[in-house]
Amino acid sequence: MADISNMKYQHNITSGMVGTIPIIFMEGDLTSEADSDAKAVYNRLKEQQPLAKLIINFEKTSYINSSGIATLIHIIRDINDQGGVIGFVGMSDHLKKVMSIVGISDFVKTFETNTDALANL
Fold first, then answer.
1. Taking the domains of the chain in order of start, what are their residue ranges?
2. pTM for the predicted model, two decimal places
3. Please, are residues 89 and 54 in contact by the beta-carbon 8 Å criterion?
4. Rounded to 5 degrees, what are φ and ψ at 113?
5. CA distances from 46 to 4, 81, 111 (A)
6. Which of 46, 54, 95, 102 places its Cα 20 to 30 Å from the Cα of 110?
């Protein structure tokens, strides 16, 4: 039997640009361990420019729990408060289902690729 008490969640959160739209790349597991990194990356982007549009790329996201969902809700609420729009890109069928169940899908636009998001945000 595996000892899950020592299980380490792995994540890497980075940012960049797709055309003129800032993007956050979520990689690995989005758990409480990723919360501070995700918020730090988001806050750095926000300091660089007002965020009227944001893309969050989930192509390499393997797992999300309630802490990861809470982090996304924080970012979505902040962008919406500024009158901005968010596009989620590259979600697996499982992530799409989770986002739909918790209601996040009602507040973001979803796209298959970064190019689709750039053209439609």
1. 28-82
2. 0.90
3. no
4. -135, 160
5. 36, 13, 22
6. 46
